[in-house]
Fold this sequence. Notes:
By secondary structure, the chain is of the alpha/beta class.
Amino acid sequence: MTASPVTAAVFTGRPVHELVRRHARATPDAVAVTGEGRGVSYRDLLRRADAVAGVLRAAGGVRGLPVAVRMDPGPGLAAAALGVLAAGGHLLCLDTSEAGGRSRAVLADLRPAFLLLDGAAPAGDDLLAWYRDALGGTVLDAGPASGAAAPPEPDRDAWTGADADHAAGKTPGTTDAAGDHLDGWADDRLDEWMYVAYTSGSTGRPKGIPQTHRGFAQFMDWFTAEFRIGPGARVAQWAAPGYDASLVEMFAPLVSGATLCPVPAKLRANPERLAAWLAAERVTHLQTVPSFARRLLEAVTAPGARPPAGLGCLLLAGEALTGELADGVRAALPAVRLVNLYGPTESILAAWHEVTGTEGGRVPIGRPIPGRDILVLDGQDRPCPEGAVGDLVVRSPYVTPGYVGAAAGDLSAFRPPPGAHGPDRFYRIGDRGRRAEDGLLEFHGRRDHQVKVNGVRLELGDVESALAAHGSVAECAVVAVPGRHRQVAGLAAYIVPRDPAAGDAVPATWRAALRRWFGRATPPVTFTVVARLPRTAGGKVDRDTLRRLAAAPDTPDGTTPTPRSKQYAGMRSQES
């Protein structure tokens, strides 16, 4: 493998918090973040971020250290994030709606010295008490009423981290084309960590994935330019804190002089109320997952509903995008730019495809994002010929340098192909795909979503596609049912029908649809009708919950169902 190193097409060379400061100086009175009544201006956001940085320095400093932030999306979270970066720390955002095992596992793995709140610590918060007692951590109030003295004007040295350079007698930074003086970071500081995001690992424990200032800033340069995010744009922050998608949604408007519009938590999972909010807030850009986009599409096309007139760009990521959904969005929202985004947290994203016409069964994941390349390799790590399905591997200087915490020694996914050399890093995504004749990449499922039933190898995504193509199915998810000796006994399909009372919304109809698709290879499937599919905090289908239900749907061993199992047990009607 002797390909030339991957290079970025665009990159300002500045970390994102410097870019936000530039807009705070150029347009200080522009609204940076909606919320708190009239919204928060760039000037006020900068002052609040400086105050947070001051609190952290007064507490002992955080240069090169992780700082946890547990806040709902809003001005407080944006100010805290910018303040942490200004103080030289790296971010660990926690979802306020999750205070159980996942948050504890993340905190125990990274062990941040400080945890920031938007206000005083609430009494009786078990997670905060555990963090103090078990980890020896310090909880700090970073809210605007905390008493931290924000300077009357932004402290530029604190904001850029340039105070250490001045103390060392170094000459500060550069002047941009507009003559705006910026105390730029030294190039080696761009390779310091900006944040750590945690995703579900193969062991069932969250896995910490760091990203550098350089990697995230390069991605922001491409993202904001390609999707025309700038002054006048209003970008929704829909993803839950703790996921890299939330950071993308938060920083994209702030680095470009646009307005960040955090979605209120009570609206986030309600498509009807969210559709009305999008219209009222005049949101221009929304990023979400395809399964929620399907529900949102139903809401905006319901009788009497009106599509959000201001929406100009819909970005879908995190799940496979079906042609049926893409065509539905294009028909209902013809003026909206529809984009399929693909890639792992390890590289933020890796590929993109703009949907401009009618799609077939599979929407391509498209072409690599600038600064990245995607290889399609066979079982011997050789490049696959055009049209052949192989393993997808992302190659880029912006691939994370490796995992942190307990997973730090797990380098198997970062193993370069034989003969690879140069500065690029590699990440084996675990997905299957192929390069079509037109050069576009297609997603063909995950390796770990392949199952063998009665000797026949099947891709669970193909089963879901066959069911989703039926007119009676609003959305669905399929998981494997474990059998003896670690074999797969069959499949369990969870179906959200468009109209539960319709005559074709029955297992016999869906089984017939599978037979038309798979013929003699049709696997044994049980069908469960549910009002909605369970979701993770990131908005994706919670397949772990479905696997537990499939493994013991009626808890025959007498064990007590989990609260989530109870939640879904009352909504299902199962037929073998």
